[in-house]
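Type I phosphodiesterase/nucleotide pyrophosphatase
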Amino acid sequence: MTEPAKILVVALDACDPTTIRELAAAGEVPTLARLLETSASATTHNPYGLFVGSLWSSFFTARTAARTGFHCWEEVDTKTYERRLTSPLEIRGTPFWETLSDAGKRVAVLDVPHSRADKPINGAMVSEYACHDRHFGFHTSPPELAKEIEAEFGLTPILTAEPDLVRDWAPDDYLHREGPHRTPDEERALTHGLVAGIGQKTQVSTKLLAEGDWDLFLSVYGESHSIGHQQWHLHDPGHRDHDVALAAELDPIRAVYRGLDEAIGEHLALAGPDTTVFVLLSHGMGSRYEGSHLLHEILRLLDTVETEGLRGGGAMTTAKRAYSALPRPLRTKLASAAMPLLRKRLASAPLPAVPNWATAEQRSKQRFYLSPNNFVFGGVRINLAGREPHGVVRPGAEYEAVCEQLTEDLLSLVNVASGKPVVREVSRTSDHYDREADDTLPDLLIDWARSGPIETVWSPKTGVVYGPDEHWRTGDHRPDGLLLASGPGFEPGAKLPDLDVVDLGSTLSAMLGVELTDDVDGRPLPWAKPVS
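Structure:
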C-alpha cells in the first residue's frame, strides 16, 4: 500500500493573490476560500526589481537573483555591447530537489519554470508540459515518462502545443493570434485551450501523486501566468483595451482561476492527514503599463544633454534650467498644469515614434544604456570604466554623480496623458543585492508608475518622447505572492512572518532532514519542522 506524500506543494505561477481573495469572497473558488480560512499564511517577497526573470531560479537554487546568472530572456553582452538571448542553462546553482534526490529522498517535480529534466532523479521530473516559459520543450526524467504521458493524456492545447518548437516567446504569446492583437474568436480559443490544459495537467499530476511514497511532491501550474499576460484586459474594466461585450460573455481570469481551484482540490483529496500541504501563489498580476519601449531614447537624450545643452536653446534653455532647479513636488504641479497645453499642441503636430533599441556602437559610447530586464522594472547599465570594455564613467565619485543625476532626471519624467510622474522610484541594484563581478545586471532599477499607459513623456532635458505601446500582452506581474500552509505544525488561520522566496528551497529541504550546502543564500525558516 502506498503512503501519501510527506510534503505536497501546489504552486500557481503568477496567480494574483488579490484577485483570488476577491473570488474567494464571491464563492467562485471554494477550495482556495477554505484554505484562506483554515491555513497558516505568509506574504512571499520575490527578488526586488528582478523578480520577473529570477523568481523561480532563486526559488530552486536558494540563491539570490544576483547569483543565479539569469535574470531576463535577453541581455547586453558586457564584452561586446551586443544584445543576445540567454538560456536557463546559464543558471548557477543546484536545484534543491537534486540535493534531496542525492540524499535518498523520493521526489516528484512538475513544471517548475526555467528548470530542465535532463538528469536521473530519485523519482520523476516533468518540465515544460504545462509551463508558460518554454526553453527546451517537453522533457521528463525518466525520458520514457514523456511518451507515457502523451499516450495516456495527450499534449495540452496551448502550453504543450508544438512541444519541440522553441521560440523567443511563450506559446500563449503566438497561438491563436494571427494579427497584432486577438480577435474575439481568438480570445475564446485561447481561454478554452488554457482551461482544457488545466484538466489535462491535473490528470498527469494527480496520477503521479497517487503513486504515493513521495517525500516531496511539487507541481506548478503555468496557466495563471499565461492568462494574466494575454487577457487581463477582459478581466479589468479599467483597462484601456477592455471589451465590454466580450467580457460580459467571457472572463478568462475567472475561468482559469476556477479551473486551478478545482485542480488544487483534486490534489488535496490525495493528501493524508499527516501530509504537510503548501499552496503557493508565486506573485501577482495587473494591467501592463510600463515605459521600457521609450527607455532607450530617454537615456540617449539624457546622455547627450550635458554636451549639447538643454533642448530648445536660448531663453527657452534658461527657462528649462530654472524649472529643473525647482523642488520636485513643485515641478510636478507645474508640469501637470502645463500638460493640457502640450497635449493640444501634439494633437495638431504629432511626433514620430522613437526607436526602441540602441546599436552596440551607441551603447559603447554612451555613459549609460538600457539593460534588458523584462518589462515591469526598467534597467539601466552604467558604462563603467574597468568593467565594460569601452567604459566612459570612472568608478568612485564620477559613478556616484552619474547615478544621482540620472535618478533625478528619470524621476522628473512626466506622462503627458495624465500629467503625473512616469517613474515611481529609481533604486541602485547594489542596495538590494551583493553584486557579482561578472554579472550582467542593471545598475539602476526603474519602478514605473503603472497607473496608465506610458506612450508620450516629457521632461525639460528630453523634451517630448513618443512611442506607442502596441504590445499584445495586456497584463504583467506584481511583486509579492502568498503562501498557504496546512498540516501538522501549522495553526489554522495563523499569520506567519513575511518570507523571502530564496528561503523556500532551504526550508522544504530542512523539513525533510536535508541541509543545502552548495553555496546557497537561503536559510530554513523558523517554522520549518521535521516531517515524519
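Residues 292-466 form one domain.
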